[in-house]
Design brief:
globular, 21% strand, single chain, 301 residues, 10 helices, alpha/beta, 7-stranded mixed sheet
């Protein structure tokens, strides 16, 4: 068990014992589990409250990591999430604790079950999501989607994040992955996007002929959270992928069959450079992605 914050939204009814759950994995700069619902700039609790859905938010505290000098210090760790059936055991303990908490209302501890399960993560929590999808045990069939908000930092992991998620999704039939990225996670996110659409290989080269794309993968570029227009605040969660493509891979429309495809990863490097050049990012984009992206996806449940 880890210190855990649980939020039951106003929409929740006491008689509903089958819970749709969003399991949130936070990143660095989170001091404790209370901080997640009171002070964190991602505003998790507010998003669940405002979306007006009966979704239970469960957020384990994974440690406090912070910048110090040129590196980081602290005790943030997600290694144990990869141990066999860690996710199953964790969810069982949370359900047990929540059942006891609700007992005074219902008269006896309700027999709580999980309906739909969503794993969502932000920033450094991406490594935790990568670990957790393999340790859900009996709750694996309940997993319907994974949402990653600016989280693909694992360029040096074995395999790297893009390859891991591509391989994992290739074996999934009922689970979807949605990734929204900003400047700090752009390289791995662009790689996963191009691989998922059958345009790039794991080496970053263009495929000789386009492979079938993954239907359960969505990768989008995060941008402004909201901006004033026509006297009101307009919310923008992410760009239309087709619009991003105009800048990411403009050579696709002009390529000729006689021109050899670039090798040694040039295709991927060019796509990454194109996106960086075309899209300037606001200062607070890292948390804008978490706020706007989380709310948008909750509203579609």
């Amino acid at each position: 068990m880890k210190p855990t914050a649980v939020y039951l939204p106003p929409k929740h009814t006491a008689s509903n014992n089958k819970l749709d759950v969003v399991l949130w994995l936070h990143g660095f700069y989170v001091r404790n589990h209370e901080f997640l619902f009171r002070n964190d700039p991602a505003r998790l609790r507010e998003q669940v409250r405002d979306v007006n859905k009966d979704v239970v938010l469960i957020a384990p505290f994974l440690g406090y990591e912070y910048a110090e000098g040129d590196g980081f210090a602290g005790n943030y760790s997600v290694k144990d999430l990869a141990t066999p059936k860690w996710g199953e055991r964790y969810l069982e303990e949370v359900l047990g604790g929540l059942s006891n908490f609700l007992a005074p209302v219902s008269g006896s501890p309700p027999q709580l079950q999980i309906g739909k399960l969503i794993i969502a993560c932000h920033s450094g929590g991406g490594n935790g999501m990568r670990n957790l999808v393999g340790s859900l045990g009996k709750y694996q069939p309940n997993l319907k989607a994974c949402w990653g908000f600016d989280c693909l930092y694992g360029a040096r992991a074995q395999p790297d994040d893009a390859t891991f998620w591509y391989n994992w999704l290739s074996g999934q039939s009922g689970c979807a992955l949605e990734i929204i990225y900003g400047p700090s996670t752009l390289p791995q996110s662009v790689k996963l996007d191009l691989m998922g659409r059958g345009l790039a290989t794991t080496d970053g080269n263009r495929t000789p002929s386009q492979r079938p794309g993954l239907k359960n993968l969505t990768v989008s570029l995060g941008h402004y959270d909201a901006f004033p227009a026509f006297g009101q605040m307009v919310r923008v969660n992410d760009f239309d992928p087709a619009f991003v493509d105009r800048f990411m891979i403009p050579q696709v429309a002009d390529a000729t069959k006689q021109k050899p495809a670039p090798q040694h990863g040039e295709f991927l490097r060019l796509a990454i450079a194109n996106v960086r050049e075309a899209f300037p990012f606001p200062k607070d984009i890292h948390y804008m992605i978490a706020r706007g992206g989380f709310y948008s996806r909750l509203s579609k449940l």
